[in-house]
TrEMBL record:
InterPro entries: NIF_FeS_clus_asmbl_NifU_N. It comes from the Bacteria. Belongs to the NifU family. This is SUF system NifU family Fe-S cluster assembly protein. Residues 7-128 form the NIF system FeS cluster assembly NifU N-terminal domain.
Length: 147
């Protein structure tokens, strides 16, 4: 299976079966993210206990790429500390901006989201893929500032 086929299948699977798409009633923080250029709108829900993301989910609407990117991101973030989550978000955003130096080490931490790397070659889709990651960073900053 080629990288493009894996990418297409992951987008399709995460969009078709969004296991992370639900609301968490007792979320520690819920942050809205919006992409005005295409209308993607998500709300990221994080439940944090002792600085660990014990649960995460999202609600909202958007294209297949934004929905899949959000779901993949959540899969990675569950069980991570706030600092680990921030580091991973920065790695993803640097990957999309083609700023990764040590690909082997940095990209392995991204799990399935690494297959979104080629999105950087599709400028119109970049905002779709980074929406949840920027929303996560805002959420984490607010959590850190509330300590």
């Amino acid at each position: 299976m080629s990288i493009n086929q894996i990418y297409t299948e992951l987008i399709r699977e995460h969009n078709k079966n969004p296991i992370n798409k639900k609301e968490i009633s007792d979320a520690t923080i819920s942050e809205k993210g919006h992409n005005p250029s295409c209308g993607d709108e998500i709300t990221l829900h994080l439940k944090v206990d002792n600085d660990i993301i014990v649960d995460a989910s999202f609600s909202g609407v958007g294209c297949a790429i934004s929905q899949a990117s959000t779901s993949m991101m959540i899969d990675i973030m569950k069980g991570k500390t706030v600092n680990e989550a921030e580091k991973i978000a920065n790695i993803f955003l640097r990957m999309i901006r083609k700023e990764i130096d040590d690909e082997e080490e940095d990209l392995s931490i991204l799990g399935d989201a690494v297959f979104l790397e080629n999105i950087s070659n599709m400028p119109a889709r970049v905002k779709c893929s980074v929406l949840p990651w920027h929303t996560l960073k805002i959420s984490l900053e607010k959590l850190n500032n509330s300590k």
